[in-house]
Every structure is written in C-alpha cells, then in structure tokens.
C-alpha cells in the first residue's frame, strides 16, 4: 500500500478527518497542513486504519477532540446571549422529542414479546385441537 493511501480507513474515520480538516481551515491553517493535522488526529484517536481484520474493535481515545472542543467553546462563549439561549431551547426541544420516541431496544423487546406470545398461542391452539380430535 503506497504512502497516503486511505483505503484501510473506515468511512467514519474519513468523515472525522474531513471535519477536523475543515475546522483547521476555518482557523486559518493552510489546506495541506490542515489535512496532515487532521489525519494525525484521526490516527492518534483511533489507532490508524481500521478496515483490516485483527485491528478492529480497538478503543478510541477522544482526548484530541475534547481539546478541540474546548477551543471551540471559547468561540461559543463569545456569541451573544440571545443566540446561545436560542440554541439551548432548540436542543431541549430535540431532547424532548427523542425522549418521547421509544428506543430501538424497547421496540425490539416489544416485537420479541409479541412473537413469543404468538408462538405460545399457536401451541395452545394446537393442543386444544388435538384434544378435540381424540
């Protein structure tokens, strides 16, 4: 694999690098340097390309992202209070909507229960038919 080949990276890692690169460019870092730093960050967080077999499933360290988030927090603090409040209100509404919806696990549990109930009812019906037939 030639140097710079990104085929062993997952699509998530490629997206992460792209977002990190955009953040650096917004802060005035030139394009090539931003790309280099972005891939260095992804490599540090995820341990490099994840597509090959044995390297999958390693834990991620998000320390670098946390550092970047703190830098971004300074920018958020500089925004007007009204803009910050509007964002908070929208976020609260999103959380409320999400809480009202059942989670995937809850939907699966309901589906599993109904399947089990259907099987039990079918078994009971078959036993009743056998008794009536004899």
Description:
- This protein is mostly helical and 134 residues long.
- Helix content is 72%, strand content 0%.
- It has five helices and no strands.
- Helix 1 (11-26) packs across helix 2.
- The radius of gyration is 26 Å and the shape is elongated.
Measured by DSSP, the beta-strand proportion falls in under 5%
Bulk shape: elongated
Order of helices and strands: HHHHH
Give a short account of the largest sheet: none
Counting helices, strands and paired strands, the structural category is: mainly alpha
Question: Which runs of at least 5 residues are low in confidence (pLDDT < 50)?
Answer: none
Structure summary, number of beta strands: 0
Number of H/I helices: 5
Helix content: over 70%
**Assembly state of the chains shown:** single chain
Our measurement of the CA-to-CA distance between the termini, rounded to an integer number of angstroms, reads: 73 Å
Summarize the entry for a quick read:
The chain has helices at 11-26, 31-46, 63-77, 81-100, 104-133. The chain is an all-alpha fold and 134 residues long.
């Amino acid at each position: 694999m030639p140097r710079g080949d990104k085929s062993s990276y997952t699509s998530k890692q490629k997206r992460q690098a792209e977002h990190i690169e955009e953040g650096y460019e917004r802060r005035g870092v030139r394009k090539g340097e931003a790309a280099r730093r972005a891939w260095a960050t992804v490599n540090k967080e995820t341990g490099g390309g994840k597509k090959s077999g044995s390297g999958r499933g390693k834990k991620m360290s998000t320390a670098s992202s946390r550092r970047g988030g703190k830098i971004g927090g300074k920018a958020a603090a500089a925004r007007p209070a009204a803009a910050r409040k509007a964002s908070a209100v929208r976020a609260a509404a999103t959380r409320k909507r999400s809480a009202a919806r059942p989670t995937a696990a809850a939907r699966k549990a309901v589906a599993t229960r109904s399947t089990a109930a259907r099987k039990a009812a079918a078994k009971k019906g078959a036993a009743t038919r056998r008794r009536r037939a004899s």
